[in-house]
Amino acid sequence: xxxxxxxxxxxxxxxxxxxxxxxxxxxxxxxxxxxxxxxxxxxxxxxxxxxxxxxxxxxxxxxxxxxxxxxxxxxxxxxxxxxxxxxxxxxxxxxxxxxxxxxxxxxxxxxxxxxxxxxxxxxxxxxxxxxxxxxxxxxxxxxxxxxxxxxxxxxxxxxxxxxxxxxxxxxxxxxxxxxxxxxxxxxxxxxxxxxxxxxxxxxxxxxxxxxxxxxxxxxxxxxxxxxxxxxxxxxxxxxxxxxxxxxxxxx
Amino acid sequence: xxxxxxxxxxxxxxxxxxxxxxxxxxxxxxxxxxxxxxxxxxxxxxxxxxxxxxxxxxxxxxxxxxxxxxxxxxxxxxxxxxxxxxxxxxxxxxxxxxxxxxxxxxxxxxxxxxxxxxxxxxxxxxxxxxxxxxxxxxxxxxxxxxxxxxxxxxxxxxxxxxxxxxxxxxxxxxxxxxxxxxxxxxxxxxxxxxxxxxxxxxxxxxxxxxxxxxxxxxxxxxxxxxxxxxxxxxxxxxxxxxxxxxxxxxxxxxxxxxxxxxxxxxxxxxxxxxxxx
Lengths: 251, 277
Ligand SMILES: [Zn+2]
Prior knowledge:
The complex is a heterodimer. Chain A is α/β, with parallel strands linked by helices. Helices cover 38% and strands 22% of the residues of chain A. Chain B has seven helices and twelve strands. Chain B is an alpha/beta fold. In chain B, helix 3 (73-86) links the parallel strand 2 (61-64) and strand 3. Classes of the chains: A alpha/beta, B alpha/beta. The A-B interface holds A 76, 79-80, 101-102, 104-105, 108-109, 112-123, 126, 140-143 and B 139, 142-143, 145, 147-148, 150-152, 154-155, 157-161, 224-227.
């Protein structure tokens, strides 16, 4: 039997709030796309933020390889670890993008936050990631406010990947996009995942998105993980009522 | 009323000198500092005057400039204040001065080891242009978390909306460690802060900060590794109408009847020396 590499990230029995999240656990493996699927209020975004080092859980631990416990690190160590090893794509681009800065500056900022001090290298990286996300090089100097919703999400993804993180966290990245823009974004994400090998933890309420991109799906319901399966198996044979509801909602 | 030497009582002066020593021990670091009251309003150089008052001895000679000029109302008033309260001698010649209190310029004349330059500073923390919170700014300084400063610089070179860095108060990095405001001096003066033989002390009374540069401190203007700092040298063809110099930092003098601009050296001492030569 193939031996699994150790997980990049493990959540061990995390809880948050009186009802938001209860004793949830997951492991994310290198190069894996793991989707957290559930209805709104199921606790997906809370779980994602805990995993991303953005929200300390009330109970439980977030562990990195070597047994490093994320929320037991000194604040500044956590900040610099998050900047170096994680990327985060929010549902609302305004949560991660600086709307007063150019697209180029938005992409380059994680490099400068990680100590880059070379203009040419930063500009080349911004151009490269702009192109990788199918954005028009002529618009590098524009501010995100004049971009379409789909372009803003792609800009967020470029910014979240530019520094070569190990894990990309995505919170409903296709929300508010029309079907064509959704499909385009998911194709890009799949391609980028394959060529960078970055692991992804993606939150969605829509099992169709999970089917297009996930290797493995966790179904959340009322703050707990109720089912875990590869997407095809889950869609063909949902076992928990919450999973059956999600499959029914696909049509 | 009993007259105290240089206005402040000895306890207050000792407290200021202790702050100065702390600041010299960690070059470029902003030491919290509560300035004793002076008989002038904030914005007129309380921070600088408190430092000068705490350092002055009977043998000192004081030079005071404002925008490089010995003759502005502010410079004249500060000189007169210390002549009255400390009975010390004053001078307009940098080489004769032991303490040079300035605002808006670094002296153009050569500075030497026995001297102290005192700067008046309105906004001591360059990071406050990026974050509203003083606590967050302190955290960023503590961890040399200066990525945002370089992002801003990058933005200016790539954005089509050009938020252009001002030509003055351009931030510097001290000994490769602390980001520091040079006070609102022209960008080109930044190079004079570097490796300076004199002690340089920066006082911001209203913002309650004091910081310092010991002699021969490495002071670099913020720049990318591959794009050198541009000190913004003077435009071609502009010359001082008094001394004819085209190299020094020039101030707008007035509009002549024909609408043409006239320019004059901002540093009056160096201008007068050139005019006399
Ligand atoms: Zn002149």
